[in-house]
Design a protein that fits this description.
Helix content is about 30%, strand content about 40%. With about 80 residues, it is of the alpha+beta class. The chain has a single domain, classed as Roll (SH3 type barrels). A 5-stranded antiparallel β-sheet has the order 3-2-1-4-5, covered by helices on one side. It starts with a strand and ends with a helix.
Length: about 80
């Protein structure tokens, strides 16, 4: 199973970006979204940025992930 997650772009080098979610940094390909800028949020799937998100939408999604993780921890 694959999961696409919102990540914040913190640096760009040609068609690669360094993106962060929490304490995790990943190299991400920007070939599908060459218009991305530093500071924007993108949905990352299989190492590629596939969609730009506004910050509010990204934060809502990240909160849903945090809630899910908390709920799983309480029942697990």
């Amino acid at each position: 199973m694959c999961l696409a997650v919102p990540m914040k772009v913190i640096s760009i080098d040609d068609d690669h970006a360094t993106c962060v979610i929490g304490d995790v940094e990943r190299e991400v390909r920007l070939s599908l979204l060459p218009e991305v800028h530093i500071g924007e949020y993108v949905i990352v799937h299989a190492g590629y940025a596939i969609q730009i998100l506004d910050e509010e939408e990204a934060q809502e999604t990240l909160q849903l992930f945090a809630d899910l993780q908390r709920d799983i921890g309480e029942t697990g």
